[in-house]
Amino acid sequence: METVYIETTVVSYLVANQSRDLITAGQQQATLDWWKRRRSSFYCVVSEETLAEAARGDTEQAARRLAALAGLPVLPIAVQAERLAGDFLRTGALPSSARSDAIHLAVASFAQADYLLTWNCRHLANAQIIRRLEREAVLSGWNLPTVCTPPELMGDLPYGT
Fold first, then answer.
1. CB 123 within 8 A of CB 129
2. pTM score of the predicted model
3. CA nearest 109: which of 135, 146, 74?
4. Would you state the pLDDT for residue 140?
5. Where does the pLDDT of residue 98 fall: very low under 50, low under 70, confident under 90, or very high at 90 and above?
6. pLDDT tens digits for 6-44?
7. Of 112-116, 140-144, 152-156, where does the model show the most confidence?
8. In the predicted model, is pLDDT for residue 1 greater than 90?
9. How far apart are the two ends of the chain, measured CA to CA in Å?
């Protein structure tokens, strides 16, 4: 069974109040569809970083995020993953403010996850950034997971109801 590392934006879209913005609403629906229809096809994991981010912000939303993640295996942030995250940041491909994003990618790489599922298209689901970080990962002896959004991981199932 393939492993999917679930990054915080996915669970945020999953439990958020329905957006009035059409694009965001579509992304929320795609997330819900993936969660209901495809999640069980994968071994899904999160990290300590995912839980820490999910616990921040509005108390009610944080509780909903953490409840949705309850029961999923939690990966620790190993020393090797911390080092790899630091290497990612030193490339300049990610700003220093994107430390959490670097940690997500490093933990997923260290855990040999097949996919990192995210809606963070600024730093993670960004082909130019991932290409630069992939070179760094290979130099460090690691392989990056395939970084994708929920619609990209629907397989042959259409999304939307």
1. yes
2. 0.93
3. 146
4. 85
5. very high
6. 999 999 999 999 999 999 999 999 999 999 999 999 999
7. 112-116
8. yes
9. 26
Tokens of 62: 């944080």
Show the tokens assigned to 120: 């963070």
DSSP 3-state of 37: helix
Distance CA 114, CA 3 (A): 5
- Residue 131 burial by Cβ neighbours in a 10 Å radius (0-12, 13-18, 19+): exposed
What whole-number distance in Å separates Cα of residue 108 and Cα of residue 10? 15
- Token pair, residue 56, equals 């921040």
For the chain, the average pLDDT equals: 93
- Token pair in block for residue 10: 């996915």
What 67-72 contacts at long range (C-beta under 8 Å, 24+ apart), as own/partner pairs, is 67/15, 68/11, 68/14, 68/15, 68/35, 69/6, 69/11, 72/6, 72/44, 72/45, 72/46
Element (H, E) at 40: none
pLDDT of residue 136: 86
DSSP string, 68-135: HHTTS-EE---HHHHHHHHHHHHTTSS-GGGHHHHHHHHHHHHTT-SEEE---TTTTS-HHHHHHHHH
